[in-house]
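so i finally got all the pieces together for this one. its two components total, 646 residues if u count the protein bits. some of the lines might not be protein, just check the labels. i wanna see the whole assembly predicted at once instead of chain by chain like last time, that was a mess tbh
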Amino acid sequence: MLKALFIKEWIKIRWILIGFFAVSLFSAAKLLLDIHHQIELMGAGNLWDILLFNNFNPYRWMEYVPLVTGISIAMAQFIPEVQHKRIKLSFHLPVNENRMLMQLTLMGNLFLLTIFLSELVIALVGITFVLPKKLILDALITLAPWFLGGITAYHLTTMVVFEFTAIRRLLLILVASAFITLFYQSATIGAYRPALPLLAILTILTFFTHLYTAYRFRKGINQ
Amino acid sequence: MIKVSRYILILLTIFTLSAFLPDFFLTVFERHVPVPFVMYSSVSHHFVMRKAIDGKTLYYDSEGTQFNRSQYEQQLPLFHFRQLMTDGLMPDSILGKPVDVFEINNANFFSRITPSDIDAPQPGLYPLFESESGRVALEKPDDYFRINSKGIQFIDPASNGIKPGKSELFTKVLIDKGMTFPAKMIAGIPTIRKKYDQGYFIVDRKGHLFHLKMEKGLPYCVQIPLPEDFHILHIDCTDFSNREFYGYIITTDNRVFVLETDTYKMINWPVKNYNPKTDKLSLRGNLDSRLAIVDKPEDVYAYASNRQYSLQNEFHEKLKHNLSHGTRIVNQILFPFRIESGPTTSGFHRIMIQLPENILFIIGNLFFLLLYLVIFFTRKRKRLVIAELAIILLTGLYGFLGVLLLPAAKNNLTARLSKDSVK
């Protein structure tokens, strides 16, 4: 059952997944090229110096890639389901509806994690050759809230897509966007460290938010 | 499961609203608070202040005397000496000695220590400069050091590897001097844009303080004796021309010390009412006196001492609140708590809950609970849910909006009615 679901989701959104996988590989590659370019121009010592003391942030432009990825994958996965209420067909299967909904987002999470982890691993492993451990850890702390924000954005977009009364959808979009900005506030390198555990817990809580709007959707509340 | 999902959404909504609504309120209603610029006159030995109110600058002293700009500058000849000399108003002698501009300039210093200097991400890697190179300008070394549990390690950026010889030599000297690894704190001025190099001040695992610098490629290290019950919170190194001290040390019990050059004597700088976690501290010195200013959100305290750091004079001014009395009460009624996200009084990005100052929020919470009940009964809903009431009672406005935005999904009629109420 899970395998069938996986294949269905894969066929539905494979092109968008491949697209974003390419984008994230490209963004990791660009970071590595940037760092090597800087070392070529100013020397490794000066690069370390501006990273340590001048608040130079070479990761800055990677900030919104996970956010866009999360939102796009959620929309690609669930807008077709909501249109013409296709998802109601799935609800006729002999599976608990909530379980089915959780499995759908689990698939999405799996795709998202594959994309994010490959980006992170390539970027971080790539810079271990030229930067000391301390700066790698700083890089991870700087990137972490953006990737958590991408996962949060995926779940909250799914939640919003299932809500179909216009005014409530608008209000939910407002609340969700405001919430997501907490992951993207400007901060110096490594500054987000104390906020990460709470942001991780909040991210896990968003995993369950679409069940409520999907219930309203399938019962036709406010239709 | 649906219920859980709904309450999670309500919780996230409350969280978001409590992070943003108080902030919007403050953005709309916050007003400019004039903060006095406090100095200590070497002429009258009173505090003299400058403050801009409604576009006009007031000059006055702690005795209530008002000045014009020129009179104000004449009160502070050691600070405004350039302007006074241009105006021909500079006295011939100050403090019983003929005026020596070089000496005046050399003795002037100013530092500012903010909460975000103290509580901030640490670089962890530092350049150890050659402090006796024989060159006029400082030069960047080609390595960076860190002090972990193995000792001090010099890392070469070119190869991203440890330099074994130099690391072993320095580690051996540090162990001989009694350092226990790893370091808890490393303070210095890690830039070549300073007047001279005094290396680093290092607090080790046991809380002992060390001074480390490099002289002609060799380590110079001493352990600095600390007084009893002396726990270092922060070290701020300075590079002033007078070379009187290496820097400031702030202890965990909020005392401020200067660390005298060469003798390593800890001298207590008299400062009261200072909380390093929330207040800004400005430290000034000149030929005549030492001045410490503690900037709190609603108070300014100033302490003047002589050059031997014995307290001479104190000053306190209460500031206006950044919200007017009315909006302040509305603020306290509307918002039972708020989530602060960002580097407010720290270099770190924290997400923290700020609890209410007083119990006025209870009025707001009860009001929104009542409002919810009125909406509930006018819409003739069926089932009163205790959990919803509890949420509103605890979180006031946030919970009220959250519960209205996300009604219970059990009942068709209930949902439709609450949607109307949102409209």
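The radius of gyration of chain A is 20 Å.
Chain A has a mean pLDDT of 92.
anyway lmk what u think
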